[in-house]
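Revision sheet: structure tokens.
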Amino acid sequence: MHPRNLTLSGGIAIPTLGQGTWFMGESRFERKAELAALRHGISLGLTLIDTAEMYGNGGAEEVVGEAIAGLPRESLFIVSKVLPTNASRNGTIAACERSLKRMKTDYLDLYLLHWRGSHPLSETFAALQALKDAGKIRAFGVSNFDTPDMVQAAKVDGGGNCLNQVLYNLGSRGIEWDLLPWQRERNIATMAYSPLHQTQLLRKPAMQKIARELSITPAQLALSWLLHQGVIPIPKSSDPERVAENRNAWDIVLPAEVLKRLDEAFPPPSHKMPLDIL
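Predicted:
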């Protein structure tokens, strides 16, 4: 069984598997299904929910707010992100306040800069630290930062940056060349968005064959592999059955022989590659 939590550099425990919300909050016709999926996931222990002000132009945060209404706040781990265009010192603080209002919560467990923009990182990190000092967020980090960005960030983040959320899955392993080792050495956690590569991985013959032999699903195989890397996957689904399937990846430990076969089918990088972004 995989560990249920890992400890961020600031001492906060974060679940090792969560629920994503990209594309949620965009259609009122999907809202009922989205709410049902998120609530079902929470009931199964998937208490980490990742969202962003960009998703559905705030709509995904509103869905999250509705899904968590009435639940003990301390039992949840809520992550959101500020858009780079809003990431000035004052803009970051104002964006966080808007996100809190949409989700009807007093604080975020983790707040990320969605990707690097034109505002100086010193301003953004100063705002994130101020939000942390004020109790509006418990921790902060970044998203879509490659190794040179992380090196620069480390010079101005005051040691507070504890996580980088990037595209990472069996079909996109470029970060293993330098970014992932760099972060591991510094106890900076890695969160993987699109862990199923927008479902593309599920259709790969090698995935289907290995999953069938193990009597699991291709999605569970892909998620368990990420858990073996010490990375936090955040699959998104509006189907409660699929959410339950994703959650069971926590209980699937892959034999060394299977990990070797996956390396053969989806080779690790042999050189530095540009950071994949969707």
